[in-house]
Design a protein that fits this description.
Elements (H helix, E strand, L loop, with lengths): L1 H18 L5 E5 L5 H8 L5 E4 L2 H10 L5 E4 L8 H5 L4 E7 L2 H10 L4 E8 L9 E2 L3 H14 L3 E7 L6 H21 L6 E3 L6 H6 L4 E4 L1 H4 L4
Parallel strand pairs: 1-2, 1-9, 2-3, 3-4, 4-5, 5-6, 5-7, 7-8
């Protein structure tokens, strides 16, 4: 794992140099990973970890160091908001896709946390998020979070790219464009973007993403 982590970190730096972009925050995705492997990665200096299932996040967070910064990156169900809100070191929720879920999460929290709105940039029915061409819904949701959700800090947009790399590149370009549109309408907010996984993070870095979410290439093999 030490070699994988070094390899990926070097790849990220080299890609950022190649494209003249910022070095993004690395979130290590822990889906299906046991606590022991997460702890091994933590011991190498990794502090941002992401989980896509609420019950797995709750269980892992209870057994791992409290200075880990947990990101929730999966589909949020309203009946799970209370459990999610109880994670003391929950750093960020990246998959908000409706005002209703934002409201439910906001009601359950006792402290302010960072949130991203998830955008469906690929048009795939299997993907969650606000559809990329529905700017009205997106802008209304941003306004709602800012004005009505005291415990949510709106920080940016998240997407999952299409599995086809050519289409994926377009997905990331769409997210960058939407980010600029939101910034124009809400200039008081410094927006971030979260895109890029193990098979496509090079495309996300090219688009100057603030954050990438990697699992397989950290825990299995560097690519």
């Amino acid at each position: 794992m030490n070699d994988n982590y070094r390899c990926v970190s070097e790849n990220i730096r080299n890609l950022s140099l190649k494209y003249g972009t910022q070095i993004p925050r690395l979130v290590a995705v822990t889906k299906y990973q046991p606590v022991e492997r997460i702890l091994a990665l933590y011991s190498l200096g990794q502090i941002h970890f992401g989980e896509s299932k609420v019950q797995d996040l709750v269980e892992k967070a209870s057994r791992l160091p409290k200075d880990i910064r947990w990101h929730f990156i999966g589909k949020i169900q309203s009946n799970k908001c209370k459990q999610l809100a109880k994670v003391d070191n929950l750093f960020q929720v990246e998959s908000l896709d409706s005002e209703y879920i934002a409201s439910e999460l906001n009601k359950c929290l006792t402290k302010k946390i960072n949130v991203y709105i998830q955008i469906n940039t690929s048009g795939e029915e299997s993907k969650n998020g606000i559809t990329f061409d529905d700017q009205t819904t997106l802008f209304n949701m941003v306004k709602y979070i800012i004005n009505d959700c005291n415990n949510l800090k709106f920080c940016g947009l998240m997407t999952i790219g299409h599995p086809d790399l050519d289409k994926c590149e377009k997905c990331f370009s769409i997210l960058s464009r939407l980010r600029r549109e939101v910034e124009k309408n809400f200039p008081e907010i410094a927006l971030e973007s979260s895109m890029g996984m193990s098979n496509d993070y090079h495309l996300a870095i090219k688009e100057n993403t603030n954050q990438i979410r990697l699992g397989r290439c950290l825990f299995n093999s560097c690519s």
